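Schema walkthrough. Field components (list of strings):
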Amino acid sequence: MSSEVALEVRGIRVGYGARDTLHGVTLEVPAGSFLGIVGPNGSGKSTLLKTMARALTPRIGAVLLDGRSVGQWNPREFAREAAVVSQEGTPAFDYTAIEIVRMGRTPYEKRLSPDRDARWAIENAMRVVGVWDLRERRLSQLSGGERQLVRLARALAQEPEVLLLDEPTNNLDIRHQVEFMEALRRLNEVGKTVLMIVHDLNLAARYASRVVVLHEGEIFAAGPPSVALDPKVIRTVFDAEVETSISPRTGALQIQPIGAEATRPPGKPLVHVICGGGSGAAMMRRLSEEGVPFSAGVLSVGDTDHAVARSLGAPVVEEESYAPISDTAHASNTAAASAAETVIICDAPVGTGNLRNLQAAAEAQESGVSVILLRDGFPPCATKRDYTAGEATALFGKIIAHGARVTSSVDEVIRPMHRRDRPAMHETHT
Amino acid sequence: MRPAAWISGSLVALFLAGVVSLGIGPAWLSPVEVLRSLAGFGPDVSRTIVLEIRLPRIVLGVLVGAALGVSGAAMQGLFRNPMADPYIVGVSPGAALGAVLVTAFGISAGFLGLSALPLAAFVGGMGTALAVVTLARRGGSFPVADLLLVGLAVGAFAAAVYSFLILSLDDGRIASVLFWLLGSLASADWGRVLVVLPYLTIAVAGLLMLTRELDVFSLGEEEAGYLGIRVERLKLAAIALAALAASAAVAVSGVIGFVGLIVPHVARLMVGPRHVILIPVSGLWGATFLVLADTIARTAVPSSEIPVGVVTALCGAPFFLYLLNRSRKRE
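Field assembly_structure (string):
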């Protein structure tokens, strides 16, 4: 590929009947990029892709591949440059996987001279996608995910520079979804240009380097995922309220719909959770799921655990961001901890700013509240992250000496609560 | 099994069927006598029976059966539907209309060694196919669903006309037209063989050239287009060739049903869907099937003939159901 822009869409208007489905879309797909196209049903995504793949002819405007209008390409030459994985259903007859992939060689076949690279290209395509072992199986014997991978292999057998995909991961279970997307990502890394329509905004956010949001036949937003998939954009385009966050594990942008607010377990908090920095999120989520009312504190505004506790509807003792725990906050925290039956101290790093959380727990323990230390990892040791020159460790020692339980498992924390408080409700598992 | 094995096996089967069929008739000949006669030895009587009476009919059966098998397989591939057959674009009612018309009006002029009836049938079949394709045209494209529906409508129209015309015929003519409508190889001779040979050869050879495209076409029109196939061109070529094969076959043998429907279907169950094997095997099996069916048609009732179309349906339908059932069980 010589030019830097693989595909260029210039002000296309495309219509099936009297009305246009695309009203002037202009788009550049740089060579080697991974572009995700999202948009609600009927926004013109498939029309755009079909026009780019020369299945539809724009009424006005043009699509250029390598600087040449796609309509002017010879269909066979075009198929060697750009491959499409469309939404069309299963083949009419029951071919084997390798026969399907071999069809990808069509643009290279001539009637009388053999296609010398066929064998290599077919095997390579099937190996890259991981379906070589399935080659003799008939399509009807494959799962939906495997079939989709076979179709991707067929597209690869075309040895294209550009891959155009129309919602390829629809109807795939999560394992095959990831397998498919990872295969695409590897292809993108070796230089293939990928343009993919996606239904799942999170997949777009996770894999695409650029995202285009289509809305009523026009581009509503475009850019890197975090820009294009802004909650405000999604509100307008999808008519849905979402919240975005960055996955601490994958670093990908995550988009969660905010439905009805999580229902808060009724009643006075039985548990007070001391946490921070995400250490209490799983615990609080589980408490909420099990219907155990809880409070949390002291958490600074902006902290992950603060957001989680708030979204779960729990009463939170809060403090401003980056500020040490004030006297007022500490007093409310101690009161909340003492009012609960159990205080759970999650495995958050302890510094001088939040040392008072441990003191609140210790005070509550003295007034008869049981304390559980939830530690990460095994064996559970009191603290690994003491940034207070030993003060926190000493305080932990004291709390343990007064009978606090140390555990590494959320289940361990939850189970006795059930036995005591809600004997009738649980015991469906283990 | 490899394609070559299927094809050579099928060729052997066809040859054996031909030898057996050559021996069966009012005068029975052993396979050895048949082979001797074919090679030009043996008594004159046997040679006359084999070479002049039975052989043209068997060769015509081979040609017609192969044409129906090949074009049936191609049409099933093109329509992506195992219920399609060579007559799908209205060829059989069109040909029938032509045949009934010349019978009704008593036209008997011949052309190119063909008498009026086969000629009219051929023109009727091709004409109907052309009309269907023209009516189904939408802009530069020929949607498959429209071809199917227009084919049904035009076919029904032609059938209505020829049914009405048949009612106006006298009994003798009704019988002969009905016999032709049900399909028969009774009027086979070397002249007919030579007349249809070029058309059938062109059609079969042409369809054999389209095997790879037909495979890709089964993915769907859109996908086929993405793989660089000129879809509309392929559709027109396949339909034209299949209509040519079907019309030529109908012209010399009447409307022989079922061969073009079940033979490709059975072949697909056995050799798989790849057209590069499916089409030649369908042709060879169609030929074998028709030769055997015609042997029954001309010998089952002494000193009388059953239309071979009746035999193909009587033998084919139960066998087809059996295979269908077996393949369903396997799944």
